[in-house]
Every structure is written in C-alpha cells, then in structure tokens.
Amino acid sequence: MQATQLRYVIRFVADMDKAVRFYRDVMGLPLKFESPGWSEFATGETALALHPASDKNPAGKVELGFTVPNVEAFYRDMSAKGVLFTMPPKKQDFGGVLAQFVDSEGAHCSVGVEAA
Known about the structure:
The protein is an alpha+beta fold. It has one domain (5-113): Roll (2,3-Dihydroxybiphenyl 1,2-Dioxygenase, domain 1). Helices cover 18% and strands 41% of the residues. It contains two helices and eight strands. It has helices at residues 16-26, 71-80, and strands spanning 5-13, 31-33, 39-41, 47-52, 62-68, 84-91, 97-102, 108-113. The protein has an eight-stranded mixed beta sheet, with helices on one face. A hairpin with a 5-residue loop joins β6 (84-91) and β7. The longest helix has 11 residues, at 16-26. The two termini are 20 Å apart.
C-alpha cells in the first residue's frame, strides 16, 4: 500500500485577508505563502491552508488534503475498494494533479502528489 499522508487541512474562508490576519497575527502561526486563492501556514507536518469560499465550499467548511506517491495508482486502488471519487485525477491550473473523494462520513477529501 502507498504511503498516504495528511498534508493539508483546508479551511474555506469568506475573507482571505481577514483570515490570514487572524491565523498569523492572533494565533501566531508562521505564514508560508499568501495569495488571494491560497494561503498556507506552517504547523508541523500538516499545513493549515486557506482557500476562498464558494457555493460548492461555503465559508467554514474544512477539507482534508492527502498526499501520495502516485495519484493514479491511489485512484485505482481506492476505486477498487469502493471509495467514491467526485473527481478522478486531473491536472490543475497550478500544475499538479489532484483527485477528490468522499470518506465514509460523506466528507470531501483531496489527494495529490507530494511536492518534490
């Protein structure tokens, strides 16, 4: 089995600037990266990532983000085990490949390849 690791907890936010200020200035988390579409804080092995809210992902929703050595192999293996994917592996605008699946409780999760 592949080495699946939890790498991101993605928090969907209505106001990126306000959320960054809260987690950076109030909570004291070290900011790794900030942009209008994705901001990330160093919190150990698992990063806190902020993403703009949308109709699909309202403010306050949290999504788990996993990394694996091979997204296509993960997709095949998990599909064979009955895991429901809402998005098969697909190249994203940022260049990486992501897939999205639903866990046993109906929560949406994403999976990508660990950055080199």
